[in-house]
């Protein structure tokens, strides 16, 4: 976003609230919504990519060695990856404390 | 091709107007009393007279969804519905306006269930009054035909970009056979330019539509809509003026009949205006100084036009075709009371709700409403509304 959302006036809104700047959802860091984070046991991970496939926010990244982990800037902590992982290598850990 | 005058069912004339407007996409689900409009359009497309996609969807919710997608790519888009169909599409109906997609709809007004009724009143349209569409009411077959063209012109104007509903009374208009003057295709082409949409969906210039809006931005988005709807007024008046210059048939946001020296007026919206004029003629013969004010434009509400016609009159007798249950009266009367609130010298307003679900409101009924309404105003009995003709 060229301008922070809270500074935009009504005159600057595009007709129909169309967003003409492509890919700017990236600037919205949804990781702050999270109350639990997924922690991957890289030793157990079979690198199948099921978590990557299921993540509703495209917040799973592949590490250089091939195992998958959450991008905590965007991960909302929904826990779908932990639920779907076929080998149970993802544990949801509280962000509190 | 010269002008042709045809004796034709209004629904058929309307669908032929849609074909003349050279629409690209029609998506609709049949529902009484809109059926003939879309049925005939499907024939026109199937027989190859119109190069358009006719999408026979499985519900009205899908119809409006298809219309949104179609309008979003810059295709000229038409649909039509009534009553329960409008209720079913209401979710997407609002979105079409918010996303500023210039869909044109023939809304064949019919009462909402229950009791289940297929007949005409305005309860359907009033349920979507605040959705952000432009709403026009027509009162004859000729007006139904003409407003197809003016509505596309208004909807697609880059300064407007709003969906337009042409409200026509179900059966009373849709199923009536009337003499209608057709314009030739050349006239229509001159009047109605191709759609030029600034942010149409296209792979070469990607945009996102229908995005998420946080509390930080939603208020500004709504202000943008409010200004858009209010400002559409200028384009509407200009589009109607130019149509008049081309065809000789001029339309105004508020129409009047014998109001110049009238002490009091009956106010109607939709096809009742025709009967009201006849009754006013006969009452004039008896010395009553009465006229008719007819609202053509419902949204954006033409405050200045209405005040100009209303001020100087002693009483307005407003005939509504829907009830706002537990509210202050019919939706039209509520609007007019609000428009005149605090205005010095404003006329008194007496409100009748009549003709629900197609119950006949004949000349004698208009006569009763006018004379009884005048007497009520003289007694100062102007609160709430009277449900005309109700038994018990």
Features:
heterodimer; A: 97 residues; alpha+beta; Alpha-Beta Plaits; two-stranded antiparallel sheet; two-stranded antiparallel ribbon; 16% strand; B: 392 residues; alpha/beta; Rossmann fold; 2 domains; seven-stranded mixed sheet; six-stranded mixed sheet; 19% strand; globular
Written account of the structure:
With about 100 residues, chain A is an alpha+beta fold. Chain A has 2 helices and 4 strands, in the order βαββαβ. Chain A has helices at about 50-55, 80-85, and strands spanning about 35-40, 60, 70, 90-95. A two-stranded antiparallel ribbon of chain A has the order 1-4. Chain B has a 7-stranded mixed beta sheet with strand order 3-2-4-5-7-6-12, with helices on both faces. In chain B, strands 9-11-10-13-14-15 form a 6-stranded mixed beta sheet, sandwiched between helices. In chain B, strands 1-8 form a two-stranded antiparallel ribbon. The longest helix of chain B has about 35 residues, at about 215-245. Chain B is globular. The model of chain B has no long low-confidence stretch (mean pLDDT about 95).
Give the arrangement of secondary structure elements.
The complex is a heterodimer of chains A (97) and B (392).
Chain A lengths: L35 E5 L9 H5 L5 E3 L5 E3 L9 H5 L5 E5 L3
Antiparallel strand pairs in A: 1-4, 2-3
Chain B lengths: L3 E6 H11 L4 E4 L6 H12 L6 E4 L3 H13 L4 E5 L1 H6 L1 H9 L5 E6 L13 H4 L7 E4 L3 H16 L7 E6 L7 E6 L2 H7 L23 H33 L6 E4 L6 E5 L3 H14 L4 E6 L1 E3 L3 H8 L4 E6 L10 H10 L7 E6 L9 H17 L6 E2 L5
Parallel strand pairs in B: 2-3, 2-4, 4-5, 5-7, 6-7, 10-11, 10-13, 13-14, 14-15
Antiparallel strand pairs in B: 1-8, 6-12, 9-11
Helix pairs in contact in B: 1-2, 1-7, 3-5, 7-9, 10-13
Number of helices of chain B: 13
How do the strands line up in the largest sheet of chain B?
3-2-4-5-7-6-12
Class of the largest domain in chain B in CATH? Alpha Beta
Arithmetic mean of pLDDT of chain A: 93
Distance between the termini of chain B: 58 Å
Based on CA atoms alone, the radius of gyration of chain A comes out at 17 Å
Question: Biggest sheet of chain A: strands, sense, closure?
Answer: 2 strands, antiparallel
In the CATH hierarchy, the third-tier topology of the domain at 44-97 in chain A is known as Alpha-Beta Plaits
């Amino acid at each position: 976003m060229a301008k922070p959302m809270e500074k935009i006036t009504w005159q600057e809104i595009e007709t129909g609230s169309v967003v003409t700047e492509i890919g700017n959802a990236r600037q919205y860091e949804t990781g702050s919504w999270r109350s639990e984070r997924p922690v991957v046991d890289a030793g157990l991970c079979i690198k199948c990519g099921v978590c990557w496939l299921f993540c509703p926010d495209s917040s799973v990244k592949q590490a250089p060695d091939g195992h998958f982990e959450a991008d905590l800037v965007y991960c909302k902590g929904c826990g779908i990856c932990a639920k779907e992982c076929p080998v149970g290598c993802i544990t949801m850990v509280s962000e509190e404390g | 091709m010269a002008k042709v005058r045809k004796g034709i069912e209004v629904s058929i004339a309307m669908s032929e107007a849609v074909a003349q407007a050279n629409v690209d996409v029609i998506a609709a689900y049949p529902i009484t009393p809109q059926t003939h409009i879309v049925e005939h359009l499907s024939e026109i497309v199937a027989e190859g007279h119109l190069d358009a996609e006719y999408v026979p969807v499985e519900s009205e919710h899908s119809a409006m969804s298809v219309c949104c997608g179609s309008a979003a790519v810059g295709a000229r888009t038409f649909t039509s519905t009534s009553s329960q169909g409008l209720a079913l599409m209401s979710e997407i109906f609002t979105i079409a306006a918010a996303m500023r997609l210039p869909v044109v709809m023939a809304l064949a007004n019919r009462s909402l269930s229950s009791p289940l009724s297929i007949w005409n009143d305005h309860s359907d349209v009033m349920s979507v009054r605040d959705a952000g569409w432009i709403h026009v009411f027509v009162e004859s077959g000729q007006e139904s035909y003409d407003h197809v063209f003016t509505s596309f012109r208004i909807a697609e104007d880059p300064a407007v970009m709003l969906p337009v509903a042409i409200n026509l009374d179900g059966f009373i208009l849709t199923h009536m056979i009337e003499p209608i003057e057709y314009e030739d295709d050349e006239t229509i082409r001159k009047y109605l330019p191709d759609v030029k949409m600034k942010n149409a969906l296209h792979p070469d210039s990607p945009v996102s539509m229908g995005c998420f809006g946080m509390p930080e931005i939603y208020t500004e988005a709504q202000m943008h809509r409010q200004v858009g709807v209010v400002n559409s007024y200028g384009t509407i008046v200009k589009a109607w003026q130019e149509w008049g210059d081309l065809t000789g048939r001029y339309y105004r946001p508020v129409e009047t009949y014998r109001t110049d020296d009238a002490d009091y007026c009956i106010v109607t919206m939709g096809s009742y205006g025709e009967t009201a004029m006849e009754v006013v003629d006969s009452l004039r013969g008896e010395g009553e100084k009465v006229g008719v004010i007819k609202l053509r434009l419902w949204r954006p509400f033409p405050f200045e036009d209405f005040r100009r016609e209303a001020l100087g009159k002693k009483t307005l007798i407003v005939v509504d075709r829907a009830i706002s249950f537990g509210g202050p009266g019919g939706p039209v009367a509520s609007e007019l009371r609000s428009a005149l609130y605090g205005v010095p010298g404003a006329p008194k307003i007496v409100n009748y709700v009549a003709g629900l679900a197609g119950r006949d409101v004949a000349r004698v009924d208009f006569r009763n409403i006018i004379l009884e309404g005048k007497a009520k105003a003289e007694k100062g009995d102007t609160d709430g509304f009277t449900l005309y003709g109700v038994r018990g």
